Amino acid sequence: MTDGPVTDLYDLRVVVERIEGRSVCGMHVGDHIDLTESNRLSIPEGKHFCLYALAACLPLLPAKQRPLPPGDWLETDSHVACPDPDERLIMRIERTGRRTIPTEELT
Length: 107
Ligand SMILES: [Zn+2]
Prior knowledge:
Blueprint (H helix, E strand, L loop, with lengths): L5 E14 L12 E5 L3 E3 L8 H7 L3 H5 L7 H4 L2 E3 L7 E14 L5
C-alpha cells in the first residue's frame, strides 16, 4: 500500500442475459467478460465475445466502475443491447467486487 491518494473502483462483469433473436456472433446466455483492476479485460478460456457487443458496453464501463450518486440512472439501469438488430442480445453489467487502487496506477 502507498500513502498516496486512492480510488475506489468496482470490478465488473458483462454477462449475456438473454438473446431474443438469433445469435449472429455465436454467443450464448451466460457468456461473459470480466473487467478488473480498472483496465484488464478477460474472457474465459475457450470462449469468445462479440466485438460489437463489447463496443456497445465500453462507453458505460468507466462510469460503472465508480460509485455513483444515488439516483444516477446508471446506478440502476445496467442493461446494454448488442447493436445487431437480428440478434436482440441483451447484456447485463454487474459489479463483482470493489477494490482500492492507488490513483497513480490508474490509466
Ligand atoms: Zn453480436
